[in-house]
Amino acid sequence: MNVTSAGVGASPPKRAHNSTWKDGALANGSVVSIALFFIVVCVVFSLVTGSFLTTPNLLNIVRQSAPLLIVAAAMTFVITTGGIDLSVGSVLALTATLSAVALQAGLPWPLVVVGMLALGAAIGALQGFFIAYERIPAFIVTLAGLSVIRGVALLITGGYSIPVEPTSFFVNIGRAWFLGVPVPALLALVVLAIAYLAFNQTPFGRYVTGIGANAEAVRRAGVDTRFMTLFVYVLSGMAAASAGVILAARLGSGSSNSGQGFELDVIAAVVLGGTSLFGGRGTIIGTVLGALTVAVIGNGLILAHMSPFLTPIVTGTIILVAIWLNFRLFKGATRSR
Amino acid sequence: MMSDGETYRVRMTGISKRYGPIQTLDDVSLNLKPGEVLGLVGDNGAGKSTLSKVLSGAVIPDSGTIEIDGKAVSFSSPADARAARVEMVYQDLSLCDTVDVAGNLFLGREPRRHVLGLPFLDNRRMHDQTREMLDRLGIVIADTRLKVENLSGGQRQSIAIGRAASFDPSVLIMDEPTAALAVAEVEAVLDLIRAVSARGVSVILITHRLQDLFLVCDRIQVMYEGRNVAERRIGDTSIEEVVNLIVGRKFTARSARASRDEGVQP
């Protein structure tokens, strides 16, 4: 990788050359490696099962993985700042149960949806306050959140799942189809498009990356880094709340036990996509591929009549191998520091 | 020779600062003309860094006055100093490794374009302006889209200096800009210092690399245990003499006292 090592002050560097697709691939090694994994997994399941590569099944995959995609997009922002949000599964459960409770109490569905998003934002803001302003590590704050919020959901429902009236318009959020595509998939697509633009094309996205790389530099540049840090938790709280609403609408009930381990799937998808847990490095495209890979493995193993209990084993193995390959194959792209 | 009535860019007089029992700065003065490069040297603990922090607003002195362009100022924060166009180069502290060259130069003041009222980065304008800025300062970097982590130490230092210079400062303070750089890179950073001062920026260079002083500085001020002990024009001195002054055989050279009398104290 001599591309960048020409010294300053030397006459125009001869060792530099115009970047080629190969440099691009190396620089985005993490995205390329997860893309390869995704393709390999898809090809394998297409060959092994006849029903994998059919339109209904593919649409089913995106429908089922919509909550994962939405929360993973927000989690990419959180992890890129160097933080983590372990509470998303619990927020999902709380908003799923509360939306069922609110609908049973007769509240109109638009109010329920807006109320849940506001609740998610408020929970995120509270956790973000402790993380950004009180400087308590994100892992601890959101671990506490994971416990408390799940506890509140259990307390409200007494552990039972609460049904949503199937005639309510609310269930359309999770079940309806629009232009031949499931509504949850469309919602996920909109969220991902916004996340991609915000991450790559706005000052906010730039500061999120900067905070993960060197928060002090961003602060000295006159940016309110504490508010930015708080705000990414607001985003993940809102994303988890919308995932809870979509899940309750699709399943037609709100269960305080839903979303157990969901935070780990989300983090797996983000890390698989090449976002660094140390912060400063993130990609939305990688996250999308990571989330879809996790979803495809679960779906494909069932279609192949394998035990569903193989899913966590295969997913875990792929996470390790993908990141190992990333370290090995694409090591040259960046200087290790 | 210095107090001939012309306006100084910076004029610090009688600066004192005490931390507990230690008198870090004791009646220190510092004068700087427009476009001048002043080398500030001294052993560790001589007070160079504290003096530069006083000028950059990070340390508030117990007594003493600071004048900038003839006007008395008092800094209570780095923001005050920045408003008076005094910039300090914070080496690695000011760079984000995983952000590209242009992004680092424009961190916190990115050119924006508004789409539907929402702020988006104007990447093309940012990269064009970066290219222009790098060319003007003679900083050689092939691609403004390179991430800073892929640059050499000298290139990184150049970006940090370029960023500080882009705020259009009248005084630029650099603390050890050439520490831990390869030979060719030191040359490039020194060239950059010359380029910046040629544009009328006064530079204070704090360094332990005495050979660098003789390449870029117009004048050297030596500090010892919180006081300034000597001041030399670069043509009138040698490395041997500067070394002697730094290690504290300060009164052996008669010229030191003479120069101090006519130079530092008005």
Automatic annotation (TrEMBL), chain A:
GO molecular function: transmembrane transporter activity
Alphabetized CDD domains for the sequence: TM_PBP1_transp_AraH_like
InterPro entries: ABC_transp_permease
Cellular component GO terms, alphabetical: plasma membrane
Compartments reported by the entry: Cell membrane
Pfam families: BPD_transp_2
Membrane topology qualifier: Multi-pass membrane protein
Keyword field: Cell membrane, Membrane, Transmembrane, Transmembrane helix
PANTHER family: ABC TRANSPORTER PERMEASE PROTEIN YPHD-RELATED-RELATED (PTHR32196), RIBOSE IMPORT PERMEASE PROTEIN RBSC (PTHR32196:SF72)
Protein name as annotated: ABC transporter permease
